[in-house]
Structures are given as C-alpha cells and as structure tokens.
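step 4 of 6: structure.
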Amino acid sequence: MKKIMNEAGNIVEEMLKGLELSDPSLVCFPEKRVIARREKASKVGLCTAGGSGHEPAHAGYVGMGMLDAAVAGNIFASPSPDQMLKGIEEANAGKGVLMILKNYTGDLMNFSMAKELAEMEGITVDCVVVKDDVAVPDSTYSAGRRGIAGTVLIHKIAGARAAKGASLKEVKETAQKAIDRIRTMGMSMTACTLPGLEKPGFTLGEEEIEIGMGIHGEPGIEKTGMKTSKELAEILLGKILADYDYNGSEAAMLVNGLGGTPLMELYVLAGDAAKVLKEKGITLSRVYVGNYMTSLDMAGCSISLLKLDEELKELLDAPANTPGFKTFG
Amino acid sequence: MKKIMNEAGNIVEEMLKGLELSDPSLVCFPEKRVIARREKASKVGLCTAGGSGHEPAHAGYVGMGMLDAAVAGNIFASPSPDQMLKGIEEANAGKGVLMILKNYTGDLMNFSMAKELAEMEGITVDCVVVKDDVAVPDSTYSAGRRGIAGTVLIHKIAGARAAKGASLKEVKETAQKAIDRIRTMGMSMTACTLPGLEKPGFTLGEEEIEIGMGIHGEPGIEKTGMKTSKELAEILLGKILADYDYNGSEAAMLVNGLGGTPLMELYVLAGDAAKVLKEKGITLSRVYVGNYMTSLDMAGCSISLLKLDEELKELLDAPANTPGFKTFG
C-alpha cells in the first residue's frame, strides 16, 4: 500500500508537527502527541482525545472558538491517560476543563484515569460522551452507540459556548443538549489501509457497500449492492428519522466524507438529502459538506442531523478559526 | 466503480446545487453550470472556468475575497463559450472582469470566444493564464506548461486585490506577478475513475508512482517506485527550485492532496518539505495543507511554492470567506 510517510511508527507525530507548521496559533507537544492553542484563553478549557486516522478530527479543530487541546492516539487507538493528562493541562486556564469524547471503551477508560491525575493537580475536569451513530446498539469497541462525525458539531457548539464565558457546568449542559439532539448514519464503499500494513483488514466487493460501518471498519447493519445517491439519502436519513423526532423542526445537516470519496459526490448527496428532509417538513437551515471525520482513505460518507433551537443556531454561527472548521460569525 | 451519484450526466449540475445549499451567499445557475455570489460587490469581477472533478476547485472558491463566479465544464472538459459568457456576466459589476484560466487549450479557445461575446455586450474582459506545473514543457491538453494547484493561490491574491478596489489593470498585474512567482510539482499514486465509467483509464502498479502526472492523468516525467515522504519532498522541491530562484526569499507553500490521499500524509509531507526549504535558506512564512485542487479520487499530491513580497503576503492574509478557502484577515 502506497502512503506518503517515512516510518509508520512516527506518522502521528510527524502529522502533528506538519499541522503546527500550517497554523502558527497552534503548538505541538510531539512526545505527548498533543496539539494546543499557543495562547491560553481565559475561559473553560475544551479538550478532546481519540485515535488518529480521522483527520482533520480532532487536532484540526483546535483553535479560536472550538477546542483548546486535542490528544492524538496511534491510528485507531486510544491515547494513554498520561497523554490525556497533558491535553487537560494544556486546555486548563483555571476555569475547569470539559473533555469531549466519542463513545469508545478505550477512550473512556483512559480518560477516567487521566481525570484522577488532573484532579490531583487541582484541575476540575468533566466530560461529555458523543454517541451519535444510530447504526448499531453496541459495537466492536463500544458499549452503546459509537461516536462519529456528529462530534465535530459538538466541538463547535461547546467551543462557542465556552468562548462566550459560560461556566464548566453551563458548557457541559449545552454540549449535552446538542449530543441529545444529534444523530448520524453512515455507509462505506471501501475499506481503509493502516500505514505500515500492506492491505486493508477486509474488503468489499466491486459493487458492494456496507450500511452503518464504523469509522474504524467495525461491522454495520448490512452489506448490500451499490445504491444511487437518492436511495442512499433515503436509507441513511430513514434510520436517523426513525430514531429521533425532528418533525416540523429546524435542523443542521453535516454530510461527511470518509476520506476517499470526492467532494463532488458529497455535494450530490447533500442535495438529495435536502429533498428528503423537505418532504418530511424539516427545515434545513445549516448545511456542512466536507471531509470532517475521516477513516484514512476509506470511501464512504455519513449524514448527521442536529435538531436546532435558537441557542444552538447562534453557537454554530459564532466565530471559529481552526484548520478544519472556520466560521466568520 | 462505486460512486455516490444518480446519473453521470447530471453529476456536475447536482454538485453545484449541493454547493449552493451549503452556502447561502452563493447562487447556482444550473443550466449554465455557473456558481456566483448572490450579491454583486462593486469592484472588478473575478471569474474562472474549467473542467469539473477538481473540487473544491473552482466553484468552491467563489465568495467574499476571492472569485465572483466560476464556470464548471463536464468532468475534465472545458466549459463552452456560452457557459463562460454567463460566468462573465455574473462576475461583472460594471468595472470589468478578469478571467483566471489554467493553461489548457480548450479553456483558452472557448474563453477567446466568450470574451468576444461579452465585449459585444459592452463588458470589458481580460484574462491571466496560470502555468505553474514545472513537470513537462507541453502536455496532452496544453501548449506550454499546465495550470494546476497553484491556481488556488492566484484566485486568493487576485480576489484580495480586487476586493481592495483595484482597477482591472491593477488586478491583472498583481495576478500576473503572482503567476510569475509560483511553481508547482506533483506526483500520483493511483489513477482516478470518471463517474459513469467502470474503471480508471490507466493504472499504476502496487508500488509504482508517477512523478509529474497531470491532474487529468496526463503523462508526467517518470514512473518510479514508491518513495518516503522525505524523498518525495526532495524530488518535488528539487524540480521547483531548479526552475525558479527562491534563494534567500520568503515563500508560501501549498501542499495539495489530489483527493484520495489522507490529510495525515499531506501534513507529514509538509513537515519534510519545510525541512528541505530551511536547509536551502528559504523562509516559509505561510503554509497551506489540504485538498485544494483534486483529481476526483486520485491518490497523490503536489507542492506549490510562491515567492512572496509584502504585497503578496498581505493579499494572502486578507479576509476571504468561500467554501474552500477562508482567512480571517
């Protein structure tokens, strides 16, 4: 498998250094694989932690209006408690730190240890756990639903709330409200190959896709034949709308690419998804399309739907300036 | 080949409609495949035209601080004079229109007809042609060097100059200055597959890459074995530095992905390229990393290097708010 890299074992460190190079407002701590804002803002700190391979998630969402620090594990592997502690320390400006996690057992376990270590240093730490993937009730690496692309909007919303000077309790409440209102459903067309490996861990047939596959290649709901964009919009949104009541409401939609799917196709899907939602009486007032939470070179996509209220709309639109997400406010 | 689409013949139109949906400041004219700013700014208009399949180029660079209109051809095919005329009309606010083209014969020919048509309507039109690809002197679709990823920085620079109220002549001069100072060199690891086709038009071996391949799969300089990121940085920059004198100067670098290469790998390459440039005494003061000018699902990358002066730095940093490029200024 051809990858632009030097040694597979150094790829995460080298990636973080490259990210730092591209954004002078960020600082990289390579030995702990932490990216943080160079200048601490006097507010509740926001941190995230998780495996690498999902770029720009999550290091690419550190910056003004979003996260204060991100902790990068090995590819598809949880960072250690020690690494997470460094992320919490970097996010901390004396007003407490909220950790935003995706629901994977390793991340949660290591965080609980990191939290203890941080509290011994006198840092107040709390966390929220994103479980937006409606595909399967439990999965290979999670008890309960997995956290996937919807997490990016949680970073945005929590980040904006913290930037407005809210307390740790308030930021957590708003983040949790958004988590409660967001659902995601995805599908994959190819596997992905980890750096250093010759081949992907599994394959899909020439005309085969997997509905509900996880962002680490975990099993989904079913393997089926290729569908049109219209059919995919109906399948993915069908599952989301059956799970949560969006009727008559305003929503934000994130059409996310898994890395190997051209932006052109994501825009086509966004158009078809908008039509489905219009028919259901759901007003789509914010639409995000792009590669926000990837799985290396996997081809595929997901749709996330967030039920909005005035607060969430305002927070989505508030200014943010990170490598992976910018809004002018 | 699995693609998220409905009918291949409609994919460009549907893509543009999806783009419009994601950014309310844009308006789509699907019958002409033109994307334009919804509200005309009173300034020199900037337009571009070219084949689709390079998203976010170019429709994704329409918006505040960059382009006023973009004209999308079929995939890897030139838009017609009639389409280009519509783009020029939409970009026109009475102060003349500058068309930014990449150097491909079809685009240039069709533009010369569109220019005549626009002038018959009383619109003043001029153009600049980007020829940044140092790989080959002539190519399948071009007499002279091809225009590739460096074009995005020309959009940015010309856009900022126009936004500051410069005249058509001044905007053209600045764009031409930037064109004269930018060089790009790329490499590909896989072919790409056009929507509606079963397979790519050619293939590369399991461990084979092509140095200098064009963004439509045109032949490059040589096929060779896979290289490390460090070696690639040396090969690509070696060709660029041999072509133009950057010695002792300040430069902006764009590390561009061709679509199928994970962002992680682009950041690794950016780090290695920065080291090569440091050794050569070139100060890297702006670094852009991402999928700016793609070739559908092709895996590969390019490096562009722009020799800066104070004016160009200021224009790169000036505010821009487009789907594919945002700077806060």
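step 5 of 6: annotate
 - The helical segments of chain B are 11-22, 81-91, 105-120, 151-163, 168-180, 229-243, 263-279, 310-317.
 - Chain B touches chain A through 60 residues (CB under 8 Å).
step 6 of 6: archive
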